[in-house]
């Protein structure tokens, strides 16, 4: 590849070998790395430690499946409309991995970064952050959940895993510090939710904040494929469409010829 | 542009002028052509006649809006999830302009082509086509509608416009011939539906069959923008989501902080 | 449709009639409205005046086609990869109608709104806006063009059309006022570019700022369909791919079996 | 959830627990399953054996990254155009996981199914399949590669892994049988390529043919996130665009204000 061409450092190949991030795909990666390890290696060029892999696996397992979310509904409706085009149905759902849901993970990661690196120390900055949100009547990204009260069980589990693997560093500490400040500012207990805990864990394993959405996108892709497979054996899309249009359940009608 | 580069004949420009299909964009197109005329010119390199424009307008007006279709529902859900990204919400809906709905327009166009060009004459081939579908228990693309009976009023209107503009040529004739054969083969009246009439009109104005889906995609893009605008002033996405998840209407709940 | 269902006011139908924005689709719209008029009607519920239609047509004709843009390249590559799925190729290209290019239209519309409604009058606010951007070393949305100097010919044409149709109101006036302030602040002439002029015209015809991107999306959909049609007769995607990978032109090789 | 609503069996939850495929997400899945195991569980409702996991990991590691493919180029161009919208850039690239490239994996899986289940035995059917393709001058899906000759090293590795894990069953046998028949029919050696070997391995672990594209989509999503991360630190999109438009390398130009 010439020096003047737009090039990538991620991968190159010749007739006999394929390299990804400098490693021989066939000799060093296939059969040696799990998908999760390979994803980390693709992103960072470093092989993850066992603990880093465990946390990335845990976050991706957490984010994969949430039932009939807007993304899953969109995927099912689009698959019904264009079943020859599975990738389009997945893409339609992934387009919903945006600010409303995943933005809270990115927003929480930004808050943790602010708190971790505050010259005045974490507790003071955490109190300032909590107070700033309370006064602006804005939700604190990564906190609160409409159903999982008093605590989101996923967050408890994710944070325990970080500790278990010796990876509860400054991101996790910042999150706990913020949690105390939030409870104090609001005068009641607000759970750390799954996006908040995920933000802390992904920070601990060194993934940069602007790419966190990409972890969610990849994990959710797997979940949406699961919905497509279920849609094939147990179709819901026509039912969903009918319910939305009319408010009443769908009853099969004889088709036009 | 060098002769070795991948190039397009559609457009080129210099500091003072921009050309599309050989015409000066500023001098000859902006302010001179409607969007529909420009679309035809973009596709074919020819300026449409008044009749051709009228039929393309009529088909695109017909296809723009159909209420809460799977595409519109997907667009609204994705817009709710990522409102910063209007183009993603439109793209999600457009991904549903696939075989289930628009495939019937393409399928009907293929049947009309088969009948128009049959050496044994249109009526014989139309009878064979109808019989072939009846025996295979397959729907005849472009015929039948679950609600609009006995006739789809859009088809009646579209075909009348073709006649009015002197453009009811062999595609329209093939459609009418097929309609008679279908009614005879099934022993009852099946309406020509809107996709069937659209296929005939787009054939009459010289658009090639493989691109018909693109006419639907463009028209539907406009309709989906309309749904996004309504979603902004009168949100339905959370309601849709709740209804699909639970089967009961959504009641606003106090948000988590 | 029950009062409890998520509903749309855009469209409803019964067995004999289809209504869009309260008008009978078959009796009042098909054959009566152009696509552009129908798009305006879909968005606003109002039939446009002749001048409003002319300006919307002019903007959409301007935005349709720009040669091998990132969007057009993406569409061609994706069409090559999945030719069975035209809508996916269009969707891929439309996903690029984002902040980098179309954001300038929206950004300019926001500036025009700020200037139009400033209590201290347009000239003072325009000077403040220009100065603010100069000091922050930020581009002024809607101004400047790398190739079209001293003036973008499209903008000249679009603004002339607004005047011709008696629609050069406060949005156009704000743009001209800002242009004078920009030239003064930077000490040289910067052209109003096509996105700036488009922002002013769409403001004049009453389209809300958050939906302007949707006008670009719809127009660009038509242009991308044109690129797909050209890709079918004169394929460029493999050539593009090879050129990007290697920096040298693609030579057909005998395919693997 | 009422019996009349469109429902999913994949997931449900209450205030304290979330279930996926009948397992408690927090107690049984997070921290217990890798992403790959969870993906298999999401798709099938069964926990994979160690060997099944190894093969799915191996295939997904193989499919993740291939350098500047059409998908990766599209993702980079769209990310450049809409950087606020990472999921849109990934979606644009995924739309290219279609018939041209991944269709060969699905096509090979269909051939293997035909051969595995042929009443006349695998060798006879394999010969018939090879002959059928040769006479029709059609490529045999899963065979041949333009660069990797005489053998694609990835396929060798993937098939060795299947044997190593005791999972070289009838799908792998059908592939080897077809390979012999292909070499005999064409009178020269054609490599089993990576899509061919992947089809056999995914068949061995029990994933249904219509969902194989979804495995590729998920794996490629991870690779495209890697390209976005590289695009952020080492931008190539403007360079690609310039190269495609002009055939010459891009040189930074002073930006318009």
Describe this structure in words.
Four copies of one chain form a homotetramer. Chain A is mostly helical and 257 residues long. Among the domains of chain A are: 10-48, no CATH class; 103-210, Cytochrome P450-Terp, domain 2 (Cytochrome p450-Terp, domain 2). Chain A has helices at 25-29, 35-44, 50-63, 70-81, 86-94, 103-116, 122-135, 153-164, 170-186, 194-204, 212-233, 237-246; strands at 11-13, 18-20, 23-24. Chain A has a three-stranded antiparallel β-sheet with strand order 1-2-3. In chain A, a hairpin with a 4-residue loop joins strand 1 (11-13) and strand 2. In chain A, helix 4 (70-81) packs antiparallel against helix 5. The longest helix of chain A is centred in the C-terminal third of the chain and has 22 residues, at 212-233. The first copy, chain A, starts with 10 loop residues before the first strand and ends in an 11-residue tail after the last helix. Residues 251-257 of chain A have low confidence and may be disordered. Chains in contact: A-B, A-C, A-D, B-C, B-D, C-D. Chains A and D meet through strand 1, helix 1, helix 2, helix 3 and helix 5 of A and strand 1, helix 1, helix 2, helix 3 and helix 5 of D.
